[in-house]
Design goal:
single chain; mainly alpha; Growth Hormone, Chain: A; 2 domains; 16 helices; globular
């Protein structure tokens, strides 16, 4: 619709910026909100709002009132909805599955996301020429309402602990205080930042290589991302369960990151379109495996009473690193060329793996629980200095 409304490449590319901006502005407040209200009701409310925005786009389209600026405003508010939804949605998973089921739940979550990433654009591309974009907007609104119906069926098996009430802005100080005395979560944040910084190579440089080096058409460029999604699905279904039964989380993450280093080297040299599709699929496998293990480690390092805010912190760190990485790798490709940028990214990524060997994501649950208890007033007899010493020793 933006392409129909205007031929400006700037406004078309601006949509991705407008969509990601709310995550930087609202994720932390959204995390605090997710910890202070009923998450199930919050998710329902947000998805009703998203349905209203999608339906509004359909109505404006049928009335021939859509213009580039109205589209940008709509994209921004839909991004706001996703930004407020993300911490609450992520925080519900550990409440509906056991700790033993958490790795499988993480894999399933990534699996459904990648399957949706394959089917959704294909379905939209099929329906737009047949029924029009306005019908797709209306269908999108209906899908948000289906999410509401599904969420209402969810029953919490675990009642959240009754914690002392705190003001909205005081909750941010509580998170800073928790992170200060939680080395395990500090490691999780650091590992997420490093991973996001280097995985941003894929969305930043894969389109550049496809269009400038392989000379793909825009439609064929979409096949690269479809192939990456297919690789993620295959990895989640067949590879991750097999590896998890044999390797530790640290070994799994290291293996996935080494695969990504290899993928970046292949992206720098492979110039046959068919082989490059296989490279994209390998990127999907590595991305899914590493992101899944980091997500599980993050959930195990969080106390239930602050899960929304902690997930918000992880999302903000990751999104910030992705934005920074995109700027770095895009600038490098412009100055030195895509191949040199990819080889540089592979070298730096490999170096970071060597430097981060001591940053284990095998979080010790017992110590995390003691920190949670101390900060929430449940373990008043443990001095902060003693607790900190024990945690640092662990």
């Amino acid at each position: 619709m933006m392409n129909i409304s205007t031929g400006s490449p700037f406004l078309i590319s601006l949509m991705s910026t407008v969509a990601s901006l709310p995550f930087f502005l609202f994720t932390l407040p959204a995390g605090a909100l997710a910890d202070k209200v009923d998450r199930q009701k919050l998710i329902c409310f947000i998805n009703v709002g998203l349905a209203a925005m999608a339906a509004g786009l359909a109505v404006f389209g049928w009335l021939h009132l859509l213009n580039p600026y109205l589209i940008l405003v709509s994209v921004f508010f839909i991004g706001v909805g996703f930004a407020f939804n993300a911490p609450a949605w992520t925080s519900t998973v550990p409440q509906v599955v056991s700790d033993a089921e958490l790795p499988s739940a993480a894999t399933l979550s990534g699996l459904q996301f990648n399957i949706s990433g394959i089917i959704g654009p294909a379905l939209g591309g099929l329906l737009v020429p047949l029924a029009g974009a306005n019908f797709v907007f209306a269908l999108n609104a209906a899908c948000f309402l289906l999410v509401v119906l599904a969420t209402r069926q969810w029953k919490q098996p675990v009642s959240p602990a009754k914690l002392p009430s705190e003001r909205f802005f005081e909750s941010f100080g509580t998170i800073i205080h928790y992170v200060r005395y939680a080395p395990g979560f500090q490691i999780v944040l650091a590992r997420n930042f490093l991973f996001a910084l280097f995985i941003s190579v894929v969305p930043a440089l894969m389109p550049v290589v496809g269009l400038k080096e392989l000379h793909l058409s825009p439609s064929n460029l979409g096949l690269l991302f479809t192939s990456m999604g297919a690789g993620s699905v295959v990895g989640a279904v067949f590879i991750i369960p097999w590896l998890r039964a044999r390797l530790s989380p640290d070994c799994l993450t290291l293996l996935a990151n080494l695969l990504l280093v290899f993928v970046y080297v292949l992206m720098a040299f492979v110039r046959q379109s068919e082989i490059f599709l296989v490279v994209a699929a390998l990127a999907g496998v590595g991305w899914t495996l590493s992101a899944s293990e980091l997500w599980v480690a993050a959930q195990r390092a969080m106390p239930n009473w602050a899960r929304g805010r902690m997930n918000a912190a992880v999302i903000m760190i990751s999104q910030g690193a992705m934005a920074l990485g995109g700027l770095i790798w895009g600038s490098a490709a412009t100055i030195a060329g895509p191949s040199a940028a990819l080889l540089g990214a592979a070298t730096l990524f490999l170096t970071s793996l060597l430097l981060s060997r001591r940053l284990s994501i095998s979080v010790t649950t017992n110590f995390q629980e003691r920190v949670s208890g101390f900060l929430s007033g449940c373990v008043e007899d443990v001095p902060p200095t003693t607790l900190t010493t024990e945690l640092l020793a662990a």
